[in-house]
Each structure stands twice: as structure tokens, then as C-alpha cells.
# Entry
Amino acid sequence: MKRILLGAVTVCLLTISQSAWCRTSSETILLQYMDAKNVPGHVKTVQGVDSLELNYKNNSVTVQGTDIAVASFKNELKTLDVQPYDFRLEEKLVHYKVEPDGKYKKSLILEPTLSTRDKNEARMSFTWGKQGYAIVMTPSRNADGSVTILAYVQQMGKQGEIVCSGRNKRQMSLGESARVVGMVEIADKNLRRHVMKGDVVHTHSGYQGFYVEVRLMEGNKSLLRK
# Structure
């Protein structure tokens, strides 16, 4: 159990309309998903809150201060103590080569399925041939229910140095499949820009590259705080 004294000073004014600022109260809030130890770092200090008591054993917070300050603190904490979203990323790493006629041949290199939580990265590294590769995906749920994927794909040399890479950000919906990022080792900046978005540019022949396709799915809802 930890007690935090915030050193707030409450000035009582002798008016009925502001009497709520004068009355002090204490309330214990049980947390479902958020760890009590993280409360001071995530909840803004509210004017009129005198102290916070963190109980790690039953994962609760006891707040003491004026009535208005306690109510304000409680409301803010309620917006943060929500079940985190979990995502399942069904990925495909594809190597392809565009022929002179604009057609392309592709080969599936890897088909991993990774799980992660909202705003947490899912990373995997592997070897294909003599090269090392890494795929990093960070899904972030938006207020409208859509999900923004920040995606990286990298190719490493023998010493672990990055010899080729791609980075892209794409907005998706649950259940949607899309190419989210790609990479190509070529001097043409315009081509590289399109490839990094996951595009296969049929009008530019004689090059080969990689793209990562992702199917975004909802993860395990039963995962609670740890």
C-alpha cells in the first residue's frame, strides 16, 4: 500500500454555491483493468485532491479531497480503467518480381500469426536464405472503431545491419485484409514510395521487392490486467 500526499491547499469560501469546494470526502475506487501503481503516471493531478492511497493487494485507489475534486478524479479514472483491446495479426510476407510485360510472379515466404494489445508492437525476426528479416506491427484503435497500423519491414545483412527497409501507416477495419507495407532496394524514389505502401507497380518492370499483407482480427477478449 502506498500513500501519496499531494500537498494541495483548499481555500473555503463562505458562499453556498461554492460549498462543494469546502467539503472534503474520501472514496475508494476498485480498478478492473488498470494497475493501481500506474495511476499517478496516467491520471492528471486534480486541484483539491489532498492525497491518493494505492492498495496493490486489492488493486484499488483511495482518493481524499474536496467533493468536486474527488468526483472529477473518479470520472477521469473511469475513462482510463477500461478493458484493453487485443488484436490478432494474420500476416503474409511475399517476395515478388515484376516481368517486362507488367505481370509479376510471387512466392510466399512466411505466414505468421501474431497477437498484441492496442498500441503495443508485435515483432518477429527470421532468416530466409542468407538474409535476416524483421516485421514490426503496432495497431492503435481509433475513436471511430477503425485501427491504424504502423508497419515496418526490414532486411538485414550478415552483420545485422539494415540493408533494405520499408515503413508505412495504414488505417484498417477489423476483418479487413490489406497490403500494409513493402520494401525494394532500388534508386528510384518514386517507386520506393509506392512499394512502401504495399503497392506492386506493374508499370515499372524489371524489379523485385517484398510486401506484407495483414488480416486484422480481434484478439482474445478474456485477457485482463497482468
Remarks:
- Helices lie at 39-42, 67-80, 189-196.
- DSSP finds three helices and 13 strands in the chain.
